[in-house]
């Protein structure tokens, strides 16, 4: 009976790979990934900017982070946004939380595989908050789902409600780079982070303005160190 119901659900909602979107026969479905993406997950590795994770030809910091030097200590991103564009849209805008849990699991795998040395010093993870109205409308906060999953697979504690977004802002995705910095200025407040090393999580880094403003708020409340971990970074 259970198999019958599962088979029926698979016809209604065929399983697909959260990374490439390919529809999958059940036997090829492996924890939300197709065989090819599971065997060769397109993580961002190699020489990367120490703040945003963009590829570098030389040096330690990309042009964009040199121009607007982030206040956070360092940062990493697991994927190129172009690879995840459709997947993030399914997660955030179609409400596919299960996809978000897989993304979080992949972030945990990326952290453990390539930046394992970060884990020891981190006191807790926290996510970029949505404004209460937007969270009600969306039904969830994408960063929270990522944090829960990262915490589950790495053992790093997840602390909710450390950051609050005090103003309902225009989505960054609708604005130019210059407007984004202005739009997000002073909209976050933080609590319960004094003397803590915080790993701040979000889904997309474009200008870095959002993560930077959250970091400012955390430092204002006495955080010892803020490090940033993003699911994806744009070109
Ligand atoms: O690096 P930045 O230039 O600051 O942009 C990144 C932010 O933009 C997106 O959110 P957005 O405000 O568009 O809202 P959303 O959650 O509805 O996508 C994304 O979720 C990040 O939080």
UniProtKB/TrEMBL annotation:
Residue span, Phosphoribosyltransferase domain: 194-231
SUPFAM superfamilies per record: PRTase-like (SSF53271)
Gene: prs_2
Source taxon at top rank: Bacteria
Pfam families documented for this protein: DZR_2, Pribosyltran
InterPro entries the record matches: ComF/GntX_DNA_util-trans, DZR_2, PRTase-like, PRTase_dom
Domain Double zinc ribbon: 8-66
Assigned protein family: Belongs to the ComF/GntX family.
Protein name: ComF family protein
């Amino acid at each position: 009976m259970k198999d019958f119901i599962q088979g029926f659900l698979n016809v209604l909602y065929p399983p697909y790979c959260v990374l490439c979107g390919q529809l999958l026969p059940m036997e090829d479905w492996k924890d939300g990934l197709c065989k090819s993406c599971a065997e060769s997950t397109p993580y961002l590795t190699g020489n990367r900017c120490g703040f945003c994770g963009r590829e570098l030809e030389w040096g330690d910091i990309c042009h964009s982070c040199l121009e607007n030097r982030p206040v956070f200590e360092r940062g990493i991103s697991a994927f190129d946004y172009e690879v995840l564009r459709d997947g993030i849209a399914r997660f955030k805008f179609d409400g596919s939380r299960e996809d978000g849990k897989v993304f979080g699991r992949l972030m945990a795998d990326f952290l453990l595989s390539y930046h394992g040395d970060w884990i020891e010093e981190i006191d807790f993870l926290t996510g970029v908050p949505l404004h209460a109205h937007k969270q009600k409308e969306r039904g969830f906060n994408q960063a929270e789902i990522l944090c829960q999953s990262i915490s589950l697979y790495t053992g790093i504690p997840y602390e909710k409600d450390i950051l609050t977004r005090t103003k309902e802002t225009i989505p960054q995705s609708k604005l130019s780079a210059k407007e984004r910095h202005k739009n997000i200025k002073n909209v976050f407040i933080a609590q319960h982070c004094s003397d803590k090393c915080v790993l701040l999580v979000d889904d997309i880094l474009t200008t870095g303005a959002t993560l930077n403003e959250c970091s400012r708020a955390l430092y204002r409340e006495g955080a010892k160190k803020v490090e940033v971990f993003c699911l994806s970074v744009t070109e």
